[in-house]
What does this fold into?
Amino acid sequence: MNQQCDVLIIGAGLSGLLTALNIDAKYQILVIAKETFMNSNSMLAQGGIAVEMNTDPILHQGHFEDTLKAGANLNDPAAVRALVDHGNEAIKRLIELGVDFDKDADNNIVFTKEGGHSRNRIVHAGGDASGYHTTKTLLTEISLRRNIRFLEHSMAIDLLQNEKRICGATVLTEGSKTLHIYAKKTILATGGIGSVYNATTNDLSATGDGIGLAFRAGAKIKNMEFVQFHPTAFFDEESKSRKRFLISEAVRGEGAKLINVLKQRFMQKYHPELMELAPRDIVSQAIYREMYDTWTDHVFLDTRELDTKFLEKRFPTIFEHLKLHGLIMGIDLIPVAPCEHFICGGVDADLKGRTSIRDLYAVGEVANTGVHGANRLASNSLLECVVFAIEIAKDINTTIESTELETNITKSYPPKAEFNYKPIRKKIGDYMDEHVGIVRNTDGLTLALEVISKIYEDLLKFPNSTKYYYETLNLATTAKIITNAALERKVSIGCHLRIK
Ligand SMILES: Cc1cc2nc3c(=O)[nH]c(=O)nc-3n(C[C@H](O)[C@H](O)[C@H](O)COP(=O)(O)OP(=O)(O)OC[C@H]3O[C@@H](n4cnc5c(N)ncnc54)[C@H](O)[C@@H]3O)c2cc1C
It folds into this structure.
């Protein structure tokens, strides 16, 4: 039942897929996904990818500086330099693999603008379906590769390790069977943490699994207090789902304004220069303040100065979604509120994606490469996925020959028991929303840490070989790490706002 391969990639979003496609075809690669290949944040990405396609150093410097400014200079400058300078090479690779970025009538790629960018540098595909188009293209390409196998509905629950290195992972298959997959190199490409909160723009399968796996293996995890809340998730009063539909920043990039429930524009009070296109942390915190001052749970995105036909063509997915809710872009005000969107920190990784444990890599949203600092610049996340996927593949191509396959490690697991983890998950989300959200204070963080630590300890006492148990354990682990980090960082910076 156990399996082996040269490279095990845990996650089938943009970062995992592009890594697989850049590893030399002579190596056997296994890509696993917890649910279907459609369940990833990559599939949901709307706005696009930030990149300077021109090699002009002045333009690269502009992207570099915008990234540091958004990240409150807490970024690792070497990582930002790599991100910005290798961006065009990475986008060219996507084009070579078949990704068709949107073009104008003269067949030139079009660039749009988003919050925190000093000029238009976002490439997009399918209007506002950039992630779907890019990820689907890579999936098609992967299906043609004979050296790459994939397994859906297969959840990594533990990393296999000896005293020196990571040697693969234990995987729970659809029928709750555990199997060991031995690999020379293992890559965490598990994405975000959205479900740690009760409301998120993420696919709800984002339960912080990569953080849990890395933590249990003893890998270094950093910058977890920097949770980015997207300012403009659609506020649908009637929806019972925890998943919020995103209204891309690019809508503001095309000229939409924010107004409060009193129909007053407010961004001039918070960032008179960039207004609605200020970095996300500033816009989310401004909306939070306006909602507080007007005793409401939302503000409005005002697209009424924009042409309906243009909006329909430019944002087909958003237009359609809103229409289903009885709202027409260009005519109706769109209710929006901030919610969890992205984790800036993660499993610490160097410029080659190597973590603190040998033969374990981290790529994409799960990784802390240092590019985002205290707040991510819009559309830098997909860029991080593609730039570092290529760097990891290069490192693997040059080091794998000298890496041994270790197949002697085994781990045993308790039998499966039926248990309803839903109330525990809800409790974690409630405490995270209330005390570890946009605004934080010492008393709230201390209380949340106490409650979440107790949940975490209880889960450890009663192990259970089911997907829901491991997801809940990963949620509790991630929530605990975020809360601890938020408590330790006493001063406000970027998307970490402390009022006491
Ligand atoms: C609505 C939305 C819009 C966005 N728009 C943009 C944008 O326009 N531009 C931008 O730059 N960024 C955007 N982002 C952020 C960006 O999409 C993500 O950060 C990025 O796609 C993450 O890619 P990834 O490969 O790291 O992870 P994902 O694409 O999330 O993939 C994670 C994969 O890991 C698998 N997985 C997780 N845990 C396990 C496990 N235990 N075992 C096996 N498999 C596992 C999942 O099944 C999935 O296949 C957006 C995010 C959202 C939610």
